[in-house]
User: Which sequence fits this backbone?
């Protein structure tokens, strides 16, 4: 079988930090080109835009869209129209309904549309899901607090409409939550704090529940200095499960039961190669729907302006 020839579109932080190495480490995947207005990768054919890539670039089978969410829908549509498989960074869109025509295009063209949730590939997520299967869960709490200046320096798009603000990392927690809980959850209340000069929240508190009334609370905050937290706690009839470091480690009552190295993006590219082999799609919009519902339900407060 020949390699899936992939072009990265939008060569920013995550493309550099994760995608290049993950493609190199994935059997059956090859990095064939980069399309980015200002950035390039030595030794790899470079194009400024996805249009230029599709018209003048080397033969490719797929694109991996690492641009901000506000521009990805049009790029995905162009790539699918050109017969390419498409991998979407998270979040899959700026709204939920914009995915519908892309899903239909992919199905019609028998091409893969893969909406990725990298945090679901963290090493302790599957062990946590399995451990919770046999327990009675009493409550869940998410604490996802990071310093936006450290993790998203200069990323103005995060504060624009569709940029999601603190939900940009927060949706990772929701992608894990919706993977490890046995029943679907929904948002019942939200409080969103918007900086006076921004179109997206810098902090959010959510209440969620499921059909059984499970209490789930989530605290997302971009203003965290000092220790950062990417933790999910679940109190059960058989102890407290702590899923920490973004899903890298799982402990029960303090005893570590699962942990491993960060190979989230290798997991994503293994899945992309497997999906593209048959042209099947994988688009789970559940985490994005929860964020959309938080925006629909959320009480808004205005807080001090954010200056990067
Ligand atoms: P980023 O550093 O801002 O990189 C995105 C790149 O896309 C930019 O460097 C820019 O490259 C290009 N771009 C920006 N605006 C564009 C526009 N209007 N039209 C076309 N291209 C544009 O952002 P990132 O952190 O890599 O995040 C990208 C996506 O990955 C986001 O959805 C984010 O949620 C997701 N993600 C990020 C991380 C992380 O740790 N940073 C982790 C997981 C997932 P050019 O100027 O060269 O075109």
Assistant:
């Amino acid at each position: 079988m020949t390699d899936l020839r992939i072009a990265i579109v939008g060569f920013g932080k995550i493309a550099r930090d994760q995608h290049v190495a993950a493609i190199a480490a994935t059997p059956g995947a090859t990095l064939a080109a980069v399309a980015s207005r200002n950035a390039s990768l030595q030794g790899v054919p470079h194009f400024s835009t996805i249009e230029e890539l599709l018209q003048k670039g080397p033969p490719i089978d797929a694109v991996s869209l690492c641009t901000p969410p506000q521009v990805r829908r049009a790029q995905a549509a162009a790539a699918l129209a050109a017969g390419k498989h498409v991998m979407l960074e998270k979040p899959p869109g700026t709204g939920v309904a914009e995915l519908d025509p892309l899903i239909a295009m992919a199905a019609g063209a028998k091409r893969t549309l893969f909406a990725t949730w990298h945090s679901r590939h963290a090493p302790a997520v599957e062990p946590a899901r399995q451990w919770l299967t046999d327990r009675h869960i009493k409550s869940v709490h998410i604490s996802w607090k990071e310093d936006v200046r450290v993790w998203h320096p200069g990323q103005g798009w995060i504060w624009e409409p569709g940029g999601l603000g603190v939900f940009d990392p927060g949706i990772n927690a929701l992608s894990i939550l919706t993977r490890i809980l046995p029943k679907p959850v929904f948002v019942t209340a939200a409080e969103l704090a918007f900086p006076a000069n921004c179109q997206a929240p810098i902090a959010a508190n959510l209440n969620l529940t499921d059909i059984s009334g499970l209490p789930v609370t989530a605290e997302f905050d971009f203003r965290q200095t000092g220790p950062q937290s990417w933790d999910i706690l679940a109190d059960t009839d058989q102890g407290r499960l702590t899923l920490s470091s973004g899903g890298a480690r799982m402990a029960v009552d303090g005893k570590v039961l699962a942990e491993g190295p960060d190979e989230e993006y290798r997991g994503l590219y293994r899945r992309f190669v497997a999906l593209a082999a048959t042209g099947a799609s994988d688009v789970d919009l559940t985490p994005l729907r929860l964020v959309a519902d938080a925006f629909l339900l959320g009480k808004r407060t205005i807080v001090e302006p954010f200056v990067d």
Q: What stands out?
A: Residues 10-15, 36-39, 66-69, 71, 89-90, 118, 155, 157, 168 surround NAP (CB under 6 Å). The first strand starts at residue 4 and ends at 9. The chain has a mean pLDDT of 98.
